[in-house]
Design goal:
By secondary structure, the chain is of the alpha/beta class. The chain has helices at about 1-20, 35-40, 65-85, 100-125, 130-135, 145-150, 170-185, 225-235, and strands at about 30, 45, 50-55, 65, 95, 155-165, 195-200, 210-215. It has one domain. Strand 3 (about 50-55) and strand 4 (about 65) form a beta hairpin. The N and C termini lie far apart (about 50 Å).
Length: about 240
């Protein structure tokens, strides 16, 4: 039995090595079939205001949005995003939305949220994954050339993140549950502290020409700049540099 198990492990390891060598491991990012051609003509990308929502999880497991944390997280993520895009030689422009354009930007953002949910549902590992959507990544938020012209950019970079912060009371409850489980001979694995983010590059047609998402459990705290930087780094690590 032991020899059989070792044999299965060896085979699994060999298959994994073969997949890595053949480049068959699924890539985390998604890109439009014409990404390289379209990206080449982008010269003035603009970063829309970053949307970050941070929840505090109470001792009873109730989630509550903390506005001051959201503002701090948005500032940290925006700073990290600009720094890392500059490191990739992109001359990005942080967009300050004038009051008269706020409705248009809000409409675009709302459309992106819906498309973002569809991308995650249909092109990432879930029971509903559609391989054809992965192989030919074509998602759009509708024409945005007019809005880009008003904001003097030729592409949008749009980032949205959610984060969970476990309160001290919640941590105490979880520790108690783990200890009680251990005494009863049951392994208790606490759930929680999930951080999720997505980034999209949108061209004037409204097509999302590059996209990535990243999720971490107990890994990030967007209230902290270094942590936010690490999160953004994961989301952008596969984005080609401007000179590539």
């Amino acid at each position: 039995m032991m020899r059989s198990t070792r044999h299965i492990v060896r085979i699994a390891g060999f298959v994994l090595v073969c997949l890595l060598a053949a480049g068959c491991v699924p890539k985390a990012y998604r890109e439009h079939p014409d990404f390289m051609e379209r990206a080449r003509v982008i010269s003035a990308p603009g970063v829309l205001p970053v949307d970050v929502t941070i929840y505090e999880i109470s001792a009873g497991g109730v989630s509550e949005v903390r506005k001051e944390w959201c503002d701090l997280g948005a500032m940290n993520v925006a700073k990290a995003l600009n720094a890392q895009l500059e490191n990739k030689a992109y001359d990005v422009k942080p967009i300050v939305v004038p009051p008269e354009l706020e409705p248009e930007v809000a409409e675009l953002t709302a459309l992106y949220y819906a498309v973002d949910a569809s991308i995650r549902m249909h092109t990432y590992p879930t029971p509903a994954t559609f391989q054809d959507k992965v192989d030919r990544f074509e998602y759009s938020v509708g024409p945005v050339a007019g809005l880009m012209e008003k904001l003097d950019v030729d592409a949008f970079v749009l980032v949205t993140c959610t984060d969970e912060v476990t309160s001290a009371g919640r941590k105490a409850v979880m520790i108690t549950a783990v200890i009680a489980g251990a005494l009863a001979g049951v392994q208790v694995v606490p759930a929680g502290a999930m951080t999720h983010g997505s980034v999209a590059v949108i061209d004037p047609t409204g097509d999302i020409i590059w996209y990535n998402q990243h999720t971490g459990q107990w890994a990030y705290d967007l209230r902290n700049y270094d942590s936010a930087h690490a999160m953004v780094e994961q989301m952008l690590k596969d984005l080609p540099g401007a000179s590539e």
